[in-house]
Specification:
320 residues, alpha/beta, Oxidized Rhodanese, domain 1, 2 domains, five-stranded parallel sheet, 12 strands
């Protein structure tokens, strides 16, 4: 009887085991988890070269008057009451001795950058200095800053003061800048602050005012100084007739910015034109683009700007 019960128990255990095995579901192997796709970060857009584009546009869109007005036309315009803004960038002392009627004074240097926002954006701006050379630089920077600016040919000393009828448009009363502020792009304002603030660093050097004297350049040419690169921006035909030894030619005018990329970045580029005025424009543009450029005092020299200028100092031009 006991054996019978024992066998019955074993049989029930076997049946239950088989039943449990049949009812259980097989465990499926899980596929390995795929790594979540990683997104390639978008490349940050290149920072816009606001100032560089404006400088290149200055030359690419150069008007027929090359951002200048003759001394005679300027005096006539002032006498006729033309609605314009006149900026005298001579020293405060010389401004006080006599200036064109209505002109305001911002002496050459940081004062120009500091007063940019007070220059009317809806008027033509006429700029004059002593001979036109630093006015050329100022005109470039003002146009880059968004103004319609032109320099007066030969400035006060060699141009305006010699025009018939100038006494009728001369005064000693000081004029103030307007109080209405123009909007200046922050990047442009920073570039203007750096440009005019940088004059302090060269003040006691041979490159003061971003210029070099005729005597200094002559000494460097004679010494075959390799730290300079001489650039003649006169017309090709005048360059062919005679130029400073070692100079290369890039005629001033519309489209000349295409030649800036070929300028050396490891030398001081000495730029000269006829009297220094258009060279001043070129120098300002080049410096804003990062080129260490200066202009030759008085340029190649002409009868109108004696005794300034290379040939007026008795230095020779070569044709080879």
């Amino acid at each position: 009887m006991k054996n019978r019960f024992k066998w019955l128990s074993l049989l029930m255990i076997l049946v239950l085991a088989i039943s449990a095995s049949a009812c259980s579901k097989p465990v499926e192997a899980q596929a390995p988890m795929e790594a979540a796709p990683t997104e390639t970060p978008a490349e940050a857009p290149a920072e816009a070269d606001v100032v560089g584009d404006l400088v290149n546009g200055y030359f690419a869109n150069m008007p027929a008057d090359v951002y200048k007005i003759s001394d005679k036309d300027f005096v006539a315009a002032v006498a006729a009451g033309t609605d314009a803004f006149i900026l005298d960038i001579r020293s405060a002392e010389d401004y006080g001795k006599g200036h064109v009627k209505g002109a305001v004074n911002a002496p050459w240097g940081p004062a120009i950058a500091e007063n940019l926002k007070f220059i009317p954006a809806d008027k033509t701006v006429y700029v004059y200095c002593y001979t036109g050379q630093t006015a050329g630089q100022a005109v470039n920077t003002l146009n880059v800053a968004g103004f319609d600016a032109k320099s007066v040919h030969l400035g006060w000393n060699m141009g305006i003061s010699k025009v018939e009828g100038v006494a009728d448009i001369t005064e000693t009363t000081a004029n103030a800048f307007p109080t209405v502020e123009a909007a200046i792009d922050p990047a442009v304002q920073a570039a203007m602050d750096a440009y005019y603030g940088g004059l302090a660093a060269v003040k006691e050097t041979k490159y003061a005012n971003y210029k070099v004297s005729e005597d200094e350049l002559k000494a460097m040419v004679d010494a075959a100084d390799e730290s300079i690169y001489i650039l003649d921006v006169r017309k090709a035909e005048d360059f062919a007739k005679g130029h400073i030894a070692g100079a290369e030619n890039l005629p001033f005018g519309k489209g000349m910015e295409a030649g800036f990329a070929a300028l050396p970045m490891d030398k001081t580029v000495v730029v000269y034109c006829y009297t220094g005025q258009t060279a001043g424009q070129a120098v300002a543009g080049m410096r804003l683009l990062g080129v260490d450029a200066v202009s030759l005092n008085g340029g190649a020299g002409m009868e109108a700007n004696q005794p300034m200028g290379w040939v007026n100092k008795g230095f020779e031009l070569v044709t080879n």
